[in-house]
Amino acid sequence: MSPPKKRTKLAAAAADAAAAAESSFSGDVNLDSIKGLFSVIISKLKTMNSGSAKEDGTNLMLSFMKLKVWQNELLEKLDVSQTELTQAVTRKERQERALAALVYEKDQLDRELVQCREFELKYLKQLAGEEVGPDGVGDPETLDQEALFVKYLNANVHDPKDKQNIIATLHQEITARGTLERDLKINESQLERIKKDLAINTSFLKSLPGNLSVIEKATMPLQKFMAHKTPQGTLPVARMIGTDRRHRLDLARSLSGPLYTLFAQLQHYLDRPAKLESAGNSAPSCTEAMSLSISPEDSTHSEVILHIPIPNILNTSTAPGQTKKVSIHFRYYEKHDIITAFASGAKTALNQEILLDELFPNDYPDSIADTDGKPYYWCNYLGGLHVTHKEQENKSLGVVLRALERRIRANETLKHILHQLERCYLPQTSGKETPCRLVKFEAIEEGENSKKMSEKTYTVAFVPSKSDSQFIVSVCIHMARYPSVPPRWFLSGSHSSTANDCNVSDSPLYDTHLASLERHVNADGLDELLQNNLSPIGNDEANYEWILLYQLRCICERIATIYNVSQAGNRQFKGRDHAPIDTQK
């Protein structure tokens, strides 16, 4: 325990320090006072000595305590300032966000205001114009938008007092329009349902012809049997049964007048019951196998097509349904007011380019530009146009069809004969071999002539049996009118040559035998040729269509006979014209 005197001094010093601190705390703390305090402390440290060290230490302690108090006070004030600053920054940020929101709202309202000012009330204007109607004052098309709205709403659009009335009027109109729109949607749905039902029914109706065709095809044998078992004329023939004929008659309604006239005549003629041919005509008619068709409505040209079967001239076996047919197309050109006809579909079997030329004498019209086919007199006559020739003969549809049948058969026969001869093959007609060998059959190129386009001249070269001599003759064939115009053979100018004979271009000698043979095959002996020969098909009526072959065979036989006689030395030539003299007389 310290002496009493020492404790007394320490207590006095503490009291003085407390008083000094209290006195020092009473003033404001600032930088100058802090600097002054540090100066006092430093000066005391410098002047401190050993004698007064205790007292100086006490003063220093008091100064440090004062400095500590000031530090605490400054820290407390710093915390308070920092808190206030943080609160101020928070308030500032909140105010800035509020300001930005207000600015954005202001810009948005400005844009909406501009859009509202510039928005064109097209439908409202149309609605107002419809409601105001023609009874209003002025024309709705020329009224100003504001004036139109005032008339429609019966209120001032700029007066806030009329706002509720305007809104009520618009709501009422919107409700009415909504009801009408719902009714419209209901009606549209009903319309769609009706259209769907109509499409289903239409599809069913369109499928009926196909189904009927299937049923018709399945029952056709029974229908034909029933038709043929009835007395003649009481029921229509098989060609009048079925949906094809009805469809064809429906298409005929869209034809022009002349084409419809031609179609009606053809259809009526083909619908007639088949009749027996006359006794003098034993060739079977192909009228029952003929058929008619009409081009579809979407085709480029409206035309009537007559399908005629091509006869089987060689009696070759053909599968059912594979009979070849030639199609005769009839077209009407309103620009020229004519009907043209041309053939197609039988290029391999017929010379279809000239099939219809001169079907009747002098019926050879010229082609017309921008048309297909030729305007033959007979087809225009049948179409009711009466484009007749000055030497027009009475022609009925039956005459025309029979002429077409004969022309097709003759054309096919001629093409078959020419095809065989061009291959140097001579068909047999009487069951015995021809005494000659054909070595050449070629067409002679001639200049084009409108009157002679149907005529072609061929060079024929053949070699008799047991000989090396080659005989050359020529024949002129009217390609269109064969065989009504018989082929004309030219024999008087023929000549013979051998393999070693180089001077084949010399003029041949005149031969009365050849001249007589020429007259025989061209005119005098035609009937005899037909009586002494049989056609390959054994049909007497078609016999005349093989006349070209009969003429060639007769020429070969006669020349072979003449050649054999001359080889025996029984012929001499005398006179300037080299006329032959028969020494056997």
TrEMBL record:
Main location (coarse class): nucleus
- A biological process term (GO) from this entry: mRNA export from nucleus
The domain of life for this entry's organism is Eukaryota
Annotated Gene Ontology cellular component terms? THO complex part of transcription export complex
Q: Name one Pfam family in it.
A: FmiP_Thoc5
Q: Where in the cell is it found?
A: Nucleus
Keywords from the UniProt entry: Nucleus
Q: Which InterPro entries match?
A: THO_Thoc5
Q: Which GO terms describe its molecular function?
A: mRNA binding
Family indicated by similarity:
Belongs to the THOC5 family.
Protein name per Swiss-Prot or TrEMBL: THO complex subunit 5
Taxonomic source organism? Fistulifera solaris (Oleaginous diatom)
